[in-house]
Specification:
The structure holds 2 protein chains of 2 kinds. Chain A is mostly helical. Chain A is 79% helix and 0% strand. Chain B has a domain of 147 residues: P-loop containing nucleotide triphosphate hydrolases (Rossmann fold), CATH 3.40.50.300. Chain B has 10 helices and 9 strands. In chain B, a hairpin with a 4-residue loop joins β8 and β9. Chain B is globular. Classes of the chains: A mainly alpha, B alpha/beta. The interface between A and B is medium-sized, with 21 and 25 residues.
């Protein structure tokens, strides 16, 4: 089964690319708008690095890394606090319900007003996007810790810090990981959108610039990079999830 | 520990509905005895046990738990219907975690205690397994080991074998009695199973349902150590079982009595 899954990890995208390749070469697709994947990969590997691809990738990764880290850490912290403290929960929850549905891109201008058009505003918008997804899933995870574990902890007088770190946190971890996975995908979306305007580097900047100068292959190169990053992030998180939650049957 | 209960009642109010869990209970549990609380479902026996454990509070009446001799105040061990082992800890760490949090275990060799009790419930080779890798019976053995390892003054067990098959249950009865006899702890055991109560207990408190009240307290005068396969054939055992069945007869047939009323 496991062997099969890794097989399909490559086979599924490969067959789509193959279909695309033949469609372009046979003239079914317009090569000006849909250049053959082989041509895009060629451009990505041999031309893009010379046009500053690594600068763009590292700029985006830098923003994602710090934004995601700050957003997830504060999301987990507040989620656990709200889950365990009824007063904090009642006070904070209406704010969460109110702010969560606002598209984070919609507040980007406001954030740029406050934090300037530099790095900070992009990091902050990624952080805010990650924060809500992780917060909501963490809260759900804390709620999902079965009552019996609360009972056991109470009867055996488990110390407060042990209760939080070794009962609640691991109990909520599967749900926290759901939040972390949603947040990493969302971070990519946000960072690219934020880089469309008011940036001088980044994958979003690359795509937007390429579109404006009609370098279609460079534009596709940027899109492919995003796809590859998304895949790499999700495989990394899956690995950590399996490593950190060994009590769960993971081959599902 | 010794437990004195006087006129203890518990009433739930939920959506303006008044439900009596148990009412006007008065009895005592002696130091070192194996005390069974027997009753049909809905008689408030679990609620009573949770009150003794401090997980619920009674509405009125008095509950006093007095430490006696060398037993340490406030240490309670509990085994639940479902094992309640932390799924993210190995068997060893499940036991050890509770010891690390026990203020009476400071400066003790925790690893030695953990090993002793894992051996005692015969799970030596499974010490580093996770709970989900064990069978239901094995998990409940860990729960028992965990409760005894804490050296509690009082042990509470809430139908710990209810979800196990008959053979496993019989084996665990033997194991529980064995450990209890070695460690000599006051043990309060809740069950709805008459034979289980007779086989295990020194005394059985029989409760009636709706509301839960004390119907009778029966002494079980069967010699120890008890061995199920021989004991079950003895007339003394069978008499005790039928005596309890008589007491619970009306609880067994509530629909019939309703019709005649």
């Amino acid at each position: 089964m496991l062997k099969n899954r890794y097989f399909w990890l490559f086979m599924s995208p490969l067959s789509v690319l193959l279909l695309w390749e033949t469609s372009t070469r046979s003239g079914l697709l317009d090569a000006r708008f849909f250049p053959a994947p082989s041509a895009i990969f060629y451009y990505l590997i041999f031309t893009s690095p010379g046009e500053g691809l690594w600068t763009d990738i590292s700029a985006s990764l830098y923003r994602i890394f710090w934004g995601y880290l700050a957003g997830c850490a504060s999301g987990i912290a507040l989620g656990v606090t709200m889950g365990l403290n009824h007063t904090v929960r009642v006070m904070i929850y209406p704010l969460v319900a109110l702010l969560y549905p606002i598209p984070k891109i919609a507040i980007l201008p406001l954030i740029m007003l406050v934090f300037g058009i530099g790095e900070m505003s992009k990091i902050v918008v990624v952080a805010i996007g990650s924060f809500f997804l992780v917060l909501i899933n963490t809260l759900h995870g804390v709620d999902s810790v079965a009552k019996i574990y609360h009972d056991v902890a109470q009867v055996y007088r488990i110390k407060k810090h042990n209760f939080v770190l070794r009962v609640i946190l691991p109990g909520a971890l599967p749900a926290i990981f759901t939040g972390l996975k949603l947040a990493i995908g969302y971070s990519l979306v946000i960072v690219v959108a934020a880089e469309f305007s008011g940036a001088d580097a980044g994958i979003g900047y690359l795509i937007w610039q390429s579109w404006e100068t009609f370098s279609i292959k460079a534009m596709y190169a940027g899109i492919f990079v995003i796809g590859a990053l998304g895949l790499a992030f999700s495989l990394t998180l899956n690995f950590f999830e399996r490593y950190l939650t060994p009590w769960r049957d993971s081959d599902k | 520990m010794q437990i004195s209960i006087a006129h203890l009642s518990k009433i739930f109010f939920r959506k303006k509905q008044r439900t009596v869990a148990y009412e006007n209970l008065t009895f005592q549990i002696k130091q070192g005895e194996f005390f069974c609380i027997l009753g049909p479902s809905g008689c408030g026996k679990t609620s009573l046990l949770r009150t003794i454990a401090g997980l619920e509070t009674a509405t009125s009446g008095e509950l006093t738990i007095q430490p006696q001799g060398s037993s340490k105040p406030g240490t309670i061990g509990m085994v639940f219907q479902e094992h309640g082992l932390f799924p993210w800890m190995t068997i060893r760490n499940n036991i050890r975690f509770l010891l690390e949090n026990n203020i009476h275990m400071v400066n003790r060799d925790l690893d030695a205690i953990v090993n002793e009790f894992i051996d005692l419930v015969r799970l030596t080779t499974f010490a580093d397994y996770f709970p989900h890798q064990l069978s239901g019976g094995m998990r409940q053995r860990v729960s028992i080991a965990r409760s005894f390892a804490n050296e509690p003054g009082l042990l509470l067990m809430d139908e710990p074998f209810v979800f196990l098959d008959y053979q496993t249950r019989c084996a665990l009865h033997g194991l529980l009695l064995d450990i209890w006899q070695r460690k000599k702890k006051t043990l309060v055991f809740v069950t709805h199973d008459i034979e289980e109560a007779v086989f295990l207990a020194d005394r059985v408190l029989v409760m009636s349902a709706h509301p839960g009240t004390v119907k009778s307290i029966i002494d079980i005068n069967l010699p120890r150590p008890r061995e199920f396969l021989t004991l079950r054939k003895s007339s003394a055992y069978q008499n005790q079982v039928s005596e309890l069945m008589e007491l619970l007869r009306e609880e067994c047939e509530p629909f019939k009595s309703n019709q005649s009323a």
